[in-house]
Amino acid sequence: MCRILLTTIKTERYLTTAKIKLTILIMKRTILFAAMLCWVMTACCACPETSSKSTTVRTGIEVLRDRHFDVLQGKRVGLVTNPTGVDSHLKSTVDIFFEAPEVNLVALYGPEHGVRGNVHAGDHVGNEVDSKTGVTMYSLYGSTRKPTAEMLADVDVLVYDIQDNGCRSYTYISTLGMLLEACAEYDKELIILDRPNPLGGRKIEGCLAEDGYISFVSQFKIPYLYAQTPGELALMLNAEADSANAVSGKGVAKDGALSKPVKLTVIPMEGWTRDMKWEDTGLEWVVASPHVQTGHTAYFYPQTGILGEFGFYNIGVGYTLPFELIGASWIDADEFAAAMNDLHLPGLVFRPIHYKPFYSVGKGEQLQGVQIHLMDFDAAHLSSVQFYVLEVLNRLYPDHVFFEECDKGRFRMFDIVCGTGFVRDTFSKSYTWESLREYWNKDVESYRERSSQYYLYK
Questions:
Q1: Which of 8, 102, 142, 206 yields a CA-CA distance of 20 to 30 A from 331?
Q2: For the packed helices 422-430 and 385-396, what is the interaxial angle rounded to 10 degrees?
């Protein structure tokens, strides 16, 4: 009887041990399977935002370097650039050219802020010698904005490498226009090392700049947001060059057209697509102008930049959030934010904010206003925000009418940045975005069709 009992106990112990081992084995395999499933789901089902950030765009300078600078060999090269002209490791195109045995760099040309970015916004840029390379630097943002015959005497080809912000009023594309004019006039070749439009290649907003409003901040008959890379824009302008349009004495093309085409080569990027915003490129943003500090800032420049021309409101310039704020001493932040949010503008949320600018409009004053939060870039209509702001502020604070209180001398600047006098004339009577909407958007689709013929990227 004892033997039977002992045998039974041993058998039960064996079965229990076997069950425990089986259970542990099943648990291990379950955990392994779950881990493998999680890995597969992470790899295959990553959200677009996460996966896009791993994308690396190779800009024109890197593509040209891989080609051993083939289009520059045997030529005297003049480089038009600023601090944004860098490779993916942030090495300056100036230094890349200077160190490359295949490149004979003989001259440098600086737009607003200068070749090395050592000049403040709007300040005169003079001619000098680059201390690092010993190459002469010529200013294209002073009394001379278009290269002269003397500046180009020792040059066979000009190379343009500057990161733009995708907005017509940003002056770097105007410098590009001056180069096209100079190369046409003095029979020089122009090569563009292409870079992304930080706003992508889809968002077109604003009417074309009109006759009488062509200037260095609206040099071409293009929309306020034009959805092209520098290379694509240059290809279009060059193809549409019209010898019937003479160039004015200041070098600005009349009627927004070039006088004649030039020998133009664009070195395209690799990996960029039209749906990419700046953060999708994997590229570092280099500050070229003090108030466009990040690629993110470029999204707000067209939302408040026109409004800032009045010098009546603070738009974050002089504080830590340039172009992201609208404030004044007489605004109630909560009331203003509530009124803006009641508009239910797609992709946008307005948050009340209290702040004190360190300089610029409202320096040292306690201001109230809103911070603009861009929640959905694709859904938002960027350039209309400032007109909605004017509409709401006029309704809330009728004692502060900006057309009566701001410096009248700034009206002209407001008009040429808008590219038309229609905006101010109409808005000063109605104070509603609805009165502007159709006119502001009237050229969008026709320009999309016109410009798409010169697209280099899908």
A1: 206
A2: 30
